[in-house]
Write a structure and sequence with these properties.
Blueprint lengths: L13 E6 L4 H10 L4 E6 L16 H21 L1
Parallel strand pairs: 1-2
């Protein structure tokens, strides 16, 4: 799901909150290929789409990580927008 080569074309700050479904090596290579301000973190116990329609917010762990993820995004946006 993550193509490390695509990171080379990124020209703006990027925040990537990967799930445990993403290949950890690809996420790390993607991060290494970014030449912009970035925040890259993997939420290893979350499924792809956990911050969107696939997150089961009835599960306290998912809800907690969902809230933490959106906090990270808000901080990133405040810094860069």
């Amino acid at each position: 799901m993550v193509d490390p080569e695509e990171a080379k074309g990124v020209k703006i700050p990027l925040c990537m909150l990967a799930s445990g479904d993403e290949n950890p090596e690809d996420v790390e290579k993607f991060k290494d290929n970014l030449n912009v301000d970035k925040r890259v973190e993997t939420f290893k116990d979350q499924v792809h789409g956990w911050m969107a329609a696939r997150g089961d917010l009835k599960d306290e762990r998912v809800k907690s990580e969902y809230e933490r993820g959106y906090g990270i995004l808000l901080d990133f946006y405040h810094k860069h927008l």
